[in-house]
Amino acid sequence: MKIIGLTGGIGSGKSTVLELFKFLGVKTYSADESAKKLVNTDPYLINLIKSSFGDNIYDKGILNSRKLSKIVFEDTEKLKLLNSIIHPAVAKDFKLFLNSNNEDYIVKEAAIIFETKSENSYDKIIFIQAPLEIRIERVMNRDNISREEVMKRINNQLDENLIIDKCDYVIRNENIEDLEDKVLSIHLDLKA
Q1: What is the tally of helices (H) and strands (E) in the chain?
Q2: Residues 16, 23 contacting (CB under 8 angstroms)
Q3: Rounded to the nearest 5 degrees, what angle is found at the Cα of 108, between the Cα atoms of 50 and 177?
Q4: Selection from 175, 176, 172 nearest residue 164 by Cα
Q5: Using one digit for the tens of pLDDT, what is the confidence trace for 107-140?
Q6: Which helix (H) or strand (E) holds 129?
Q7: Which of 106, 88, 85 is nearest to 97 (CA)?
Q8: Considering only CA atoms, which of 124, 93, 107 is closest in space to residue 19?
Q9: Using only C-alpha atoms, what is the Rg of the chain?
Q10: According to a count of CB atoms within 10 Å of the terminal CB, is the N or C end of the chain lower?
């Protein structure tokens, strides 16, 4: 079974592309969605986060991701700490996902493939690219945050110019019709 990585900067449209692969019948895994689930259901992970960021980081048993984001995107050491807590839990969850599937290929969405130096874990990597202003607007609308907060998150990610040449496929995400055609083309290539 081939493991296809799907990556790109915040607001580039990774989730939309993942949904398009799912629509084509491809098994998909979202590291981001799994992390959101695990931080609220895995007792070991919850205790680690509380001991690292304080008990008040959870409101009524649910992680206050807005409060946590404010902390980690202002302090790179805290961001590294959070990643060191969450990534092993997501990796373990992904292993369980792989063990329960037997497909030609699966697509795993992970925003920080290159930051974690895990690019060799994938058979192919798809990079989603979108104009900066479109990304900023998408994230501001999606997360109801300011432009400044979006830029802090973008500035914590690797420059896409350092990544793009290392990817097997690049999808420029500007409109849904082109996006559907590009995903179908990649799907057919991966099935060949």
Answers
A1: 9, 7
A2: no
A3: 120
A4: 172
A5: 999 988 998 889 999 999 999 999 999 999 999 9
A6: strand 124-129
A7: 106
A8: 107
A9: 17
A10: C
- Contact between residue 15 and residue 135 where contact means Cβ atoms under 8 Å apart: no
Q: Which ranges in the chain are annotated with CATH 3.40.50.300?
A: 1-26+105-192
**Which amino acid is located at 31 in the chain?**
A
Task: Report, as an integer, the average pLDDT of 47-70.
Answer: 94
Query: Beta partners for 169?
Result: 126
For the cut 90, the answer to whether the pLDDT of residue 56 exceeds it is yes
Does the structure show a pLDDT above 90 at 161? Answer: no
Give the CATH number of domain 1-26+105-192; options: 3.40.50.300, 3.10.180.10, 3.30.420.40, 3.40.50.10320: 3.40.50.300
CB of 128 within 8 A of CB of 8? yes
How far is the C-alpha of 112 from the C-alpha of 116, rounded, in Å?
6
Cα torsion through 69, 75, 78, 83, rounded to 10: 60
Query: Sign of torsion, CA 53 57 61 64?
Result: negative
Predicted confidence (pLDDT) at residue 29 exceeds the cutoff of 90: yes
Only one residue has tokens 């990774």, namely 14
d(CA 81, CA 77): 6
- Calculate the dihedral angle through the C-alpha atoms of 130, 111, 109, 50, rounding to the nearest 10 degrees: -140
